[in-house]
Amino acid sequence: MKRRRILKILFAAGLLPVLLAVAAFFFPQQVLTVDSGPVTADALVVLGGTPDRAVRAAELFKQGEAPWILVSGAGDNASNKRLLVRNGVTNTVIFVEDKSRTTRENAEFSIPLLRSLGAHRVIIVTTWYHSRRALACFEHYAPDIQFYSHPSYFGFVEKAGGAENAAQITERKAEWKRARSYANTEYFKLLGYWVCYGVCPV
């Protein structure tokens, strides 16, 4: 009887990770997305990567969520700054951090700049599938600053809205396919950051 109970416990313990993995694969939006909802802050940090992030940051800026924007990331910081200006952000409120090449470095190199601006409340702007790891990194390296997440919903099926024609449906499917491929690799990065840097994703 005792042996049977032990076997049941072991079976349940082995089954749980499998169920979690299946849930993560089929519901990446629910697992990876962190959205803090409406909030005002001292600054926005838009992370390098897909251009939808800069567009989202411009939207938040025009909504009055923060008076400053810090563009973080080597390689695409200039193009992101141009996107911000093109989408209605005044050039004088944009600051640039141009050395970081990873999410960890985004946090490490941006935090001193945020402190120099006197920022105590900061909104992180990235894509939905990257939002959990990005937020966790900034919180890990600057526990004295209050961070929030307002991601872009590039390729996010539930946020995309109804398409009007076949071309839009095709484009949305292509966006979802790209986003889904990024989301699948994000799980490995979350685990890697937890093991290597102690950045807990929850």
Could you explain the architecture of this structure?
The protein has 202 residues and is α/β, with parallel strands linked by helices. It has a single domain (32-197), classed as HUPs (Rossmann fold, 3-Layer(aba) Sandwich). It is 55% helix and 11% strand. It contains eight helices and five strands, in the order ααβαβαβαβαβαα. It has helices spanning 2-26, 28-32, 52-62, 77-86, 103-116, 131-141, 157-160, 166-197, and strands at residues 43-47, 69-72, 94-97, 121-125, 146-149. A five-stranded parallel sheet has the order 3-2-1-4-5, sandwiched between helices. α3 (52-62) crosses α4 and α5 (103-116) crosses α6. The longest helix has 32 residues, at 166-197. The radius of gyration is 19 Å and the shape is globular. The two termini are 37 Å apart.
**Structural class by secondary-structure content:** alpha/beta
- State mean pLDDT (0 to 100 scale): 85
Apparent shape = globular
Helical proportion? 55-70%
Class, according to the CATH hierarchy? Alpha Beta
The count of helical stretches stands at: 8
What is the CA-CA span between the terminal residues? 37 Å
Q: Into how many domains do the coordinates divide?
A: 1
Radius of gyration (Å): 19 Å
Neighbour order of strands in the largest sheet: 3-2-1-4-5
Going by CATH, the architecture would be 3-Layer(aba) Sandwich
Give the H and E element order. Answer: HHEHEHEHEHEHH
- Report on the biggest sheet: 5 strands, parallel
Q: Strand tally, please?
A: 5
Poorly predicted regions are 7-23
CATH topology description:
Rossmann fold
Strand content: 5-15%
CATH homologous superfamily title = HUPs
